[in-house]
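Two proteins, back to back. First:
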Amino acid sequence: MSDQQDFDLIVIGAGSGGVRLARMSAQRGARVAVVESRYLGGTCVNVGCVPKKLFVYGSHVHDELEDAAGYGWQVPLDDVRFDWPRLVANKNAEIERLNGIYRRLLESTGVTIIEGTATLSDAHTVVVGDTSYTAKHITVATGSWPVVPDVPGKECILTSNEMFYLPQLPKQAVVWGGGYIAVEFAGILAGLGVETTLLYRGDLFLRGFDGDVRRFTENEMRKKGVILKYGVTIESVDAENAHYRVQLSNGEVMETGLVMAATGRRALVDGLGLTDLGVQLSASGYVVVDDHFQTAVPSITALGDVIGTPQLTPVALAQGMVLSRRLFGDGQGEMDYSAIPTAVFCQPSIGTVGLTEEEAREAGHRLRIYRSEFRPMKYTLSGRDERSLMKLVVDDENDRVLGAHMVGPDAGEITQGLAIAIKAGATKAQFDSTLGIHPTSAEEFVTMREPVA
C-alpha cells in the first residue's frame, strides 16, 4: 500500500447515513467517494419511509371524503374512483426528484459518486467492476434487506420493496408479520379498499411497544376493517391463475390476490468480503462495531442498519455526523441512543418516546401512569368511530416523565415536541405547569392530572 491513496474515505452505500457521512467529511476537507449499486437515498427514500408515508396519505383520503358530509360537503361516495397506477406514478416522480437532490448534495460538496457493486480486496481497497480504489478509511453503510421465510412458494411472496411498484391493486391481500412495517402496510391496503388480513405468529403485534398502545391500536385497526389472525404463520403458498392459495399453520386455507411478508430484515453484506478481511459479524449477521463504529479491522468502520442499531433514518444520520467528526474533525463525539422518538404510520398512527410502562417497571422504577382516551374533536361532527390514546409514564420518586405514548391523528408530529421535553428530563409538574393549546389533542399531555395506576 502506497502512502498516497485515491481517497481519504470511501463510503459503501448511499443511504441516509452514508450520504451524511460523505457530505460532512468532504466539508471537513476529506477526499471522499461513495459507491452505490442501486439508488441514491437508500431504503428510506426509495422503498421505505418516504414512499410509505405518501401511500399512507393516499390511503387516508377515503376517510376524509366520508367525514366531509359532517362538515356540510356533499361528496358522492358511490362515484368515487381510485387510480392506483396514478398514485404509483406520482410517487415514482417524487422519488426521482429526491434521488436528484441526493446526487446534487454529494456533487456540490465534491464527493465522487461511483456507481456499481463494491467488493473489498484488502483493508484499504474497494473494487468496483474492473477498477480498484484505495482509501485510508472505508465505511460500510449498505443497510438492510427484507427477509422472506423459506417456505414452499416463497417466490410468490412479496416484500415491502415490491409493494411500492405493484402494477395493480388486488381485491384481497394477506400481510405476514407483526412489526411496524406489517402494521403500516395492512393499514395502507385496507385504506385503499383491499380486504386485508394480517397474520402474526405471536399473540399481539408490535412487540416492544407499550402494552396499552398495542392493545389500543389492535382495537382501532379492527374498526378499520383489518382482519387480525394471531398465533399463526404461513406454511406454503401456491399460485392459482391470478390468485394465491395460502396454507396456514392452523390448518386454514386462504384465497388471496397478494401475499406480502414483513417478517424481518437482515444486514446487506453479501459479496463485500468483510469476513475474509477479519471483520466480525454477529450471530444475526450484523457488522460488529464498538461504540465508535470501529470494526475489528482498523481502517474499516460501519454505521446504519448494517450494524443492528435502531433501524431509523435519524439514527443513521446522527451516526454519520458522529463518525465524520471522529475521522476528520476533533476525534470526539458519542452516540446517545436514549429516548429515541419514533412513529408508526398505521391508522390511527402511533408516536412514542422514552420507556414503555413495561420497560420502566422492569428497570425497577416505582411508577405513576397517566392515561387518557377520547374521540378527537375532528370526528365529533363526522361521527367517525375512532378514538385516541395518550399516556405518560412517570417515575414516582423524582416526578420525571420517563415515556410518552400516543395513538391518534398526527401522533408523530406531536411526539417530536414531547421528545425534547423528555430528553431534557422534564418532570410531570413541568408538564402540568405548561399551558395547553386549545382546542387540540396535544393539550391532553399537559392536562392529565389523576394517575390511573
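And the second protein:
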Amino acid sequence: MYIPSFFKLENKDKIRDFINHNGFSIVINKGNERLLASHIPMLYTTNEKGEEVLTGHLSRANPQWKSFDLMSEVLVIFQGPHSYISSSWYDHTNVPTWNYIAVDIY
C-alpha cells in the first residue's frame, strides 16, 4: 500500500490498538493456482517470548489453511473508518479524495 510519508504511522502501540479495535481482517496469500483470501477476526498480541503475533482462526473446511508455509508471504489487511472528501470542502482548488485508515501487515 502506498503511504505518503506524512501519513505513515510506525508507533506499534497505536497500530496494535487500531487492530484490536478493527480486528475483522482480510488474510491474503498465494495458493497453488491463484491468490486466496479469507475474512477473519484477528488479535494483535505479544506471546510469552515477547514476540508480536497476529492470532486468528481458519476453519479446516477452508482450503486456504493448506497453502500456508514458512516460505510464503501472507498479507493481512485491517480497515477502519473511511469517508469521501469532496473538493468543495477545501478553501482552495483541489481534487476530491477518500479519507481512510488501514493497516497492512506482512
